[in-house]
Each structure stands twice: as C-alpha cells, then as structure tokens.
C-alpha cells in the first residue's frame, strides 16, 4: 500500500475518469432527491427541470441552488431523503448565525465522511503508528466525531479529548506522546502559548503535524502555530451540511485544499448573479453531494468565498484544490463603504509581531462607521510609558490603514485579557446590527 494516500485509486483518478464517475453518480442522485424530497422537487419543477434533463455534470447548472434559508425552512425533517429509520446519527451546526441546521446520516454516509477525514489525516503524514489527539468539540459539532472516525479508519491511536481543559490536554499530549493534533487554529495557538507557560519547548513535545480548520486562519497564523508547537500545520475544510470536516484537505504541498471530488462536485459562482465562474476566478463555493443518502444537498451555497485550481499537484492527487476561504459572503464587513475581511486585519497583526489574540468591533456613531481593533500587547513590546504604547498603537493603525484603506482605532490591551477560544473563535462584534 502507498502510505501517502488513504484511497489512492480515488485520490489520483485521471480527470476524465473522475468526470465520468461524477456524471454517473449525479444522474442517480438527482433522481433520488427528486423522488424523495418534495421541497427540492418543487424547486426543480419551478425551474422547469426534470431528472431526465440531467445527463451528466455538464447539466449541473440547470439545477436550482439551495441555501441555508431553505434548510431553515424545511427544519427539522424536510430535507430528509430516506426513511428516518435508516438514519443512525444527526449532527448540527453551531447556530451562531441563526437557527441550527440538522444534518442526517445513514451508516453509509458516516463511512464516506470518515473516509474523507482519514484521507486528510494520511495526507498530513498520519499512519497507524500515530497518536491523534482530537480536541475539536464532540457532540453536535462535526469536528470531534469526524476526525475521531477518520483516525480510527487510519488505525491511529485516537485520543477523544474534545475541547477545553487545557491542563489535561497538555498532560495527555506529553504523557501519551501525541503526534498529531486536531483542533481549531485558534485553540492550537492557545495550546502553543500554554505549553510555553509550562516551560515546555516546541522540541520537547512529540507532535509532528496539526490538522486545523473550522474557522478562517491566515498564512501568518500558520507560521505562528508551526513555530510555537514545532509542527507542520495542515488546513482542513468542511461544513455540517455536506458531512463535516474532510470535504477538502491539504497535502504536503500545502497549496490549497484538495476537494474529495469523488463525493462532492464543487462550483464557483458569482454570489450576486449565480453565474458559474471558470476555475481560477474568485467567488462563492457551491457543493453538490454525489453519494450521501440521508441529506444529499444539491448545489448548496456555502457562502464561503474562494478560488479553485486544477493545476497539477506534485503529491499526485488529481482532485481540484480550493484556496483557503477568504471570508464568507455573509461575514464580510462593509465599513464606510469598504469591504473588509477580518482575515486582512489578522494578517497585519501577525506581520507586525502581535499574537492572534484580538477582537474587532464595528459600530455606527453619528452616522459614521467606526472600526475598533483590540489586540494584546505581546510581553516583548511592553513599554512602561503611555507614550510608548500610543506610538505602537499609531504605527499599527497605520499598517492596518495601508491594508484596508480605512483607518481603525487601535487599542493595545494587557496580555491575557482577551478571552481565549477553545472552539471557533468569535472575533467580530458588529454593533450596527444589534441596533436594528
Ligand atoms: O466547521 C466543520 C469542520 C470541523 C471543518 C473541523 C474543519 C474542521 P460548520 O460548523 O458547519 O462545520 O461550519 C462550516 O466553517 O462554511 C466555513 O465558513 C468555516 N470553515 C470550516 N473549515 C474552514 C477552514 C465545520 N479550514 C463553516 N478555513 C464553513 C476557513 C472554515 N473556514
């Protein structure tokens, strides 16, 4: 067996064969959904498209889109495509942006999801010799269960730690010699910080790799985590609606995340018009799940903005690569008319030598938008004069202005005063929305 892949035949499939496979699966899937999900059948009928019109993936764009709103409208059972008795599990979104979405799984669906996570672990160098510490949350969130299942499939020793309890995380990490860490990048950064406080140097732990995702993170943050933990940090992407983590993952090349295209078809669309864009153009990512039985969403709009690339990858995988999501079309801030992604601010902070412990606050005062950035003063920048601090604030505000084109108010706060996150970090408060 080639240890670089978990399922080599699928992962390195020639493009033509892949397209034929996707087409065959799509035709079946559309029929399955049309017959079993009255809500989607209505959408198709309204668009004047019938299952017989779909001959292959070249016909994908004839199908209607689905959005999170559709899932809320059909809550809780309206999107189910198999009898409830065939389902063995539910998972759910965190509901931070509204009512929770429930995803259903048959055993077949769980197996394919865990295969996707196993592919991600193997791509990060995981084998049955590894000790995989999973500190994504367990429960309704897909992070813990997904990576847990993937790690089992690889045959690694799995530590189902869940999130939080940092003292215990460190104790198990050191005592059981964990080699692969799975958690959100913000928690990985916090673990790095905590290890340092315990006097544990990066070379003292046994970790070799980390598989981090579930929230946006920048290349600067990757470097920061790699340094503090002494590892190679890999990105993993996914969403509850499509199964969970593992829809795409990074290989050793780390030039985008390979989408598991034997199970999911990816499209990039213009979020305003819905028009399908060619590879290489930036837009909203849309997924069609080809194999899922219970909750098989067709043309689901993720709201994540990214770019797809079919450039050949040196790892041998043929699956298309997606860039790191550059933000979500629904979390992009428009401040004084300027489009701002929180990740742009994070890039500046880390480039200027600050830690990823920051908060962004947007408000509207006297009809003008305000942008406040709160960031911890790293101990090495501590100055005992207020002039010293305000000079640092001014220079950081200037660097952010250069990046964004609008001027923020920067507030340097004492180390350790910004709450650390154990799961997905919530860094932005838009008070303008609270006033509505
Ligand atoms: O966050 C699934 C997951 C768990 C992915 C563990 C990776 C690791 P949801 O809670 O449904 O599912 O949130 C999905 O999170 O649409 C993206 O906006 C964001 N997201 C997920 N992975 C990444 C990533 C899980 N690697 C939403 N980079 C998605 C940036 C990510 N954003």
Description of the structure:
It is a single chain. This protein is of the alpha/beta class and 436 residues long. The chain is 32% helix and 22% strand. The chain contains twelve helices and 20 strands. The chain has helices at residues 8-11, 15-36, 38-47, 68-73, 107-123, 143-154, 166-175, 185-197, 219-229, 342-351, 386-404, 431-435, and strands at 89-92, 102-105, 131-134, 157-160, 180-183, 209-213, 232-239, 244-250, 257-259, 264-269, 283-289, 300-306, 308-309, 321-322, 333-335, 338-340, 358-365, 368-376, 409-413, 428-430. It has a nine-stranded mixed beta sheet with strand order 4-3-5-6-7-8-9-14-13. A four-stranded mixed beta sheet has the order 19-18-17-20. It has a three-stranded antiparallel beta sheet with strand order 10-11-12. Helix 10 packs across helix 11. It is globular, with a radius of gyration of 22 Å. The model has no long low-confidence stretch (mean pLDDT 94). Bound molecules: 5'-O-[hydroxy(phenylacetyl)phosphoryl]adenosine (DLL). Residues 93-94, 136, 142-143, 213-216, 235-240, 244-245, 302, 304, 324-325, 328 line the site of 5'-O-[hydroxy(phenylacetyl)phosphoryl]adenosine. 5'-O-[hydroxy(phenylacetyl)phosphoryl]adenosine binds at residues 93-94, 136, 142-143, 213-216, 235-240, 244-245, 302, 304, 324-325, 328.
